[in-house]
Batch of 2 targets.
Target 1
Amino acid sequence: MSDTRHRCPSALAFERYLLGELDGTARARFEEEIEACPDCAAALEELRADDAAFALRPAPAALRSFWTGEPPARGVPWLRVATAVAALAAAAVLVLALLPPRGEGEEAGGEVPAIGERGAAGTTRIMGDEATGGAEAAGPAGLALGFYLLDASGRPVLGGPGQVLREGDLIQFWYGGGAPGSAVLVGIDGRREVTRYFPVGGAPSSLPAAAGRLLDSAVQLDDARGAERFFLCVAPGLEADRVEAAAREVASSVADPALVERLPLDCEQATVWIVKE
Amino acid sequence: MAATTNWNEASILTPWASPGDALSAEGGLVTDDRMEIESIYRKYGAMVLRRCRSILGHDADADDAAQEVFIRAFRGLAGFRRQASPATWLYRIATNICLNRLRDARNRQRLDREALPEAEPDRPVENWPRDLALRILGEFDGRIRETVMYVVVEGMTADEAAEVMGCSNSLVRKRLATFRERAPRKAARLLGGIR
């Protein structure tokens, strides 16, 4: 005997019906099921009401920026075109020295150094730190990590996950959101080697919560081929050694470290990855 | 990028560009893409948000996850255009993002503080409370998690789940069998550890 019990359509079937994705036969079958089930009919009406309510909601600024082309109000101002790229030669990953921290009395929004400009401490940056504006405490938002790179004509452009880069390319990281705390940025490269990119030497540096801020130094990529994943870890009192140890654990125990999205550490994290050809 | 908590407006600085995307002088997407992206959000936004809420429950987390779904979709615009069923494609992305978030240590800590489900781990997994099934899912790998989500938690048939995931019915059954075999032990350990 066949099973004649009513079976409600799946949640996905409801959605596809509302979106007009069901073909004639499937649509007719769905409507028969709805007609036979008052609960399903009520659920469908609720979804329609929810659709209407959603249509009245403004899109989040972070998404809206994708189609307006304008960054959220507190985000990074659009890239400034610079005129020159410093030629940096290094066979291995070279992390250039960080600029001395800005004094408390200095104002934000100062002059953006040209690409490749060397600061007093020998720093090279793709973007000036003060390009970020609005870098004051932004409250507890999710931590985000990304980077800028230079295109073929030397213009700074946003990089994205899976970006294909080459030996010698320069990248400069930005971060946003998150609570203030000690920050450590590490990478696991295609040779499973762990490199600390921030802070460079010394004690962990504290990062303020920020809507968007650049790490001071640019990084020149070495010749390790394959995917490299970067992790930004932030927590009060976070020790760089702990982060590096967690990264080494991942590098030595996971089949493909580039697929790992979190280090085994209890702290706020953000990650991004690249591919080196 | 894996922002893990409360991704608000300020935490996304500028649109990401995928490798190979056409870029404007400012590094953003070209105009035609922008119009398409907005229409995608308008059309599928409610569905994605509902999907995230159905798994995460927590409104702020759901909003945050829904943003991540769309950012992934926008970055993979070429992939989106190839989909016969964009709704199914986004539904799967939302499912996996939310399940990953459930696995996130902080979310698990939050869940652990909430009311524990009344459960008897030796009952058939299909009859487990939804909360317990969701919690156990974090102990399994991605494919099994997704399969169990559709079949055990949401009540899809194996055929429906296979269609959604683009795999065979037998593979769905195999994943379910793995889950049934291992879940009771994991549930006993989880409940024993919490209580």
Target 2
Amino acid sequence: MPLLFPLVVSALLFAIGVYGVLARRNAILVLMGVELMLNAVNLNLLAFDAWHRDTLHSGQILALFTITIAAAEIGLGLAIVLLLFRTRRQINLDAVRELADREDTDREDAEVRR
Amino acid sequence: MTTSVSAMVLASEQAGQASGVFSLMWLIVAIPALSAAVILLSGRAGKSWGHLLGCAAPIASFVLGATMFFAMLGRGPEERAVEQQLYTFIPLPSYHVTAGLLLDQLSVCFVLLITGVGSIIHVYSVGYMAHDERRKRFFGYLNLFVAAMLLLVLANDFLVVFIGWEGVGLASYLLIGFWQHKPSAATAAKKAFVVNRVGDVGLSLAVMLMLATFGTSSFAGVFGHVGAAGTGIATALGFLLLLGACGKSAQFPLQSWLLDAMEGPTPVSALIHAATMVTAGVYLVTRSNAIYDQAPAAQTAVVLVGTITLLMGAVIGCAKDDIKKALAGSTMSQIGYMMLAAGLGPAGYAFAIFHLLTHGFFKADMFLGAGSVMHGMNDEVNMRRYGALRKYLPITFGTFAVGYLAIIGIPPFAGFFSKDKIIEAAFSSNVWIGLCALIGAGITAFYMTRLMYMTFLGHKRWAKDTHPHESPPVMTVPLILLSVLSIVGGAGLAYAGGGIVSWLEPVVGEKHLEPPLSVAAMTALTLAVVALGVAAAWWFVARREVPVEAPVKVSPITTAARKDLYGDAFNEVVLMRPGQEVTRGLVAFDNRGVDGVVNGLAAFVGGLSGMVRRVQTGFVRSYALVMFGGAALVVVAMLLVRLS
Amino acid sequence: MTSILLAQEFKSPTIEYAKVAPLLIVFGVAIVSVIAEAFLPRRFRYPTQVVLSLGSLAAALVVTVGLAGSKLLAAEGAIAIDGFTLFLWGTILVMSIISVLLLAERAVDGGVTAFAAQAAALPGTEAEREAQARRLEQTEVFPLFLFAVGGMLLFPAANDLLTMFVALEVLSLPLYLLCGLARRRRLLSQEAAMKYFLLGAFASAFFLYGMAMLYGFAGTISFSGIAAAIGAKTGVDGLLLAGTALVAVGLLFKIGAAPFHMWTPDVYQGAPTAITAFMAACTKIAAFGALLRLFYVALGAARWDWQPMIWVVAILTLGVGSVLALTQSDIKRMLAYSSIAHAGFLLIGFVGVRDHISANTSAILFYLAAYGFATIGAFAVVTLVRDASGEATHLSRWVGLGKRSPIVASVMALFLLAFAGIPLTSGFMGKWAVFSAAWQGGAWPLVVIGVVASVVAAFFYVRVIVLMFFSEPAAEGPTVAVPSVFTSVAVAVGVAATVVLGLMPEPLLQLAARAAQLVG
């Protein structure tokens, strides 16, 4: 198999992941986008590992670590999203924007509202 | 020219290590610094003795400086420069910066000026600030200034000069804004700070360039190597140092802050914005003579800057009704003379310093005189509200008159000796520059006569409830001292012990140019022009009653001069308006008090800031989009670099 | 047969335990303190955690000092122990000790720490009120903090891609959580955690993708292997370039360089101030260490490819940091933009290199130390200025602070002057070191831009000083809380370091110069 194939597939996967992060408003779906990006990388790593015939299998090990860390990351991410959901009853990311550069008057309004 | 350079290098390389009385050199700086710290950190307790300590510190430094001056007199001309290493400041392997002090013929002049005139002004301030409840703090700041200024002139390394440079900037900022309850004072302080920072960029880049090129920023190292480094480096250094000098000395095009700086208490105007700090630029150029001698283009720039400023300042001085602002215009103009002289190379350095010293005497004298007038006139500064004060303030009038005669250059008063020399040297180098300097002398005579007449002669035009009275002795004695200096200072410096030119020769070199006319003819010509200026002032001002309100129907030139020759307007049109266009509708940013050259820039940056910050929307996904765009940019940039 | 097989020798990996002891101590105690959190009764937790954290960090610091002079690749080449690593370890450990002091501060907010009483209780509910009333504290912050410190220690020492990635995540994950644990203004705090987490994960994905490409390019994950591959391999340069760019994204995100800076102001503002102080100082130090090691050691030979890109980023960062700080009205946001500007100054030192990296490395090391002390100190002062709703961070509340509390205002002014690079403060020496190293490296246009940016920056620092000293205080201004010995020590150390490094930079500069050796 040409090296190009897995690389293109993984690049596409990565791009879909990026699209998910940029286009989705639901925090869970954004998290899924990030996961997709990480999985694209795993595919890449394995392809390179096989291509280089790496006797140390650094690529595979790296992929394993990535999977583990991605799991930890998603666990933490879900915890944060859950916290957000419990306080706001929604996980629309666009609704969460108290912190921003805005004019003073706006901010005072925001402080009054809080 | 080369001889002067080698003389310079010789002098600084052979500067002996400090011993005997000279080993106390560091105390000259340390005493006022320590006193400033004590005064500022002492709580209420310091209120009763703060001003006394504040006066004692510069006097102690003066005594030390004078002792060392006499010790220097006892040595041969080549052994007078003394160096004292304090400690190693930057020991990086690539370069080495040691902090040390250098007392030579040039710096000792400044030490005596700063501590001498400084002490007199400190004493005067005891009376002037007597009713201010923050007098203690005022003296703390003044001492801080003296310490920083002494560090500036005593440093043996440009990096240490820079530290003093920032220090005097800070002190000046604090003192201009000392009466912070006046919004105009706060604005003026801000303006001075910002404009000075622009100048500081020049100086800091110059030091960086020195470190990068020579691996050191010490005077000895830089001046020793600059000859071999080529004209390019020397020219770049010359222009960068000139930028620094322009900021600190209120030279064109960074002149706009000095007039506003008059918002500070009058002793501050006398000490910092007339006698010492504003002349730091002249010191810098003179000190760097080895650099400028290698860079004719930079020298020409110095001459041009000086000439433009001396005319501008003089014209502005003609139109101001505020006595302090008229004097400030005059200060700009006189420093223009010094810069002009310093730009002439070895032919002019000594005259620049000569005029700097005499100007320090007579301008401090007149500023303190103005303060004494204001003291008696309920802090009125508008000269149209003065008149006939001669009888009511006799001592102030007498001392002010001495200063007046000195500045317009009537023999045997101080200004005659120093200014004539500059005009002579200017004529010898270039007839047009000489003519400008000559015309400047005429205008000086005009505006000073106008000021003198409107204040002390003519009829009373006082506001109601004004009861002018002579100031207490604590203020008049300093005035008398300064006026004595204004009388004898010129002749003394010119002739005593071979004169200042031969005194400074080991440091700055000497070159005599033949003036196109004989010296006597030049003097006669100058005096004739001065007389013309006085007569013109008499014709225009004294012939009829001075109107209490400034006339509205005046010539375009007067209007222009009243508006500082459109300095701020120019800045507004070129810098501020486009900035405001950017700002308009985008941001409600605090632009109050924005005016002048750099504040225009500030408005621009502020507007830009208001525009860019709209990107920070708070939407996390738009942040991610920016990051993604950045990542794409980074990848594309790298690929492009490889392809090209 | 089996017995013969079992008797066969094989070469086990060697771990130089003594050399990586600081890491082991911090991670080990972090685990112990998780256990302590689970088993100790509530009233013992706070003192135990504080003692454990301070003790482990101090012990790690002592061991680090003892390791001085080491120069080797430990753990089969995964960790580089050299002067550079040890200097950064020392700096990070000192800064984290100061940060622990801020974390443990209880006096300024009525006898409890600045962290949520019970993170699970919803803001504004009965449960939260009860938790508040029972004066509960979330002492989990201490183990989380220790794990983050461990990750930060590992990050600049990592000598292969895998270790570097693990370190990156170990330092980031606890920080995401810590950001969301503020006691006051919990909604803002949670929002900060969410933003930091999502953007951090996004940046890690880019970093990882870049790593995969670098691995694909070199066929190895060790830095020395990658360095050897550059120049030796031809035809796959695309992988090298794309990989370099993408790992740069991940690292530049951590140091807060534009255009990857967007999280910084929001997160710095929302996070508990003690955590902000810790992040601003230690994360930046660790991430710069990693950036230097990766780009100088592994990618040094490809310098001509990545230098222009870093130039652009440095200029953007300086511009964004110093221009946007001008219009900020919240002190924490202003300090955030100031930290972005400082990242720009550091990048100038990083990129302005021609032949020898030692001058640049030592300049950056010095700058990081100087900046770190001043930053923690400044944020520590921010925790002290309070009103009824917690910290009064809006700049309008700081008006006239100099009249109300001259000491606190003067200390803040000192830190701001150091940030502005005024002579006789540490910031001045740091800027000089960085600028002159870059100038000698031929990056003079960057230095000019840097000097101009520092002029703009001076303007907004001085604006705050003017606000504090030259304006009349508002009628019902904030109060200045009297801190316990913890915060006092933190602020005092910051002041002392700022002044000493400004007046006598020589010892630290020499140490940094000696530490500027990277193995590999």
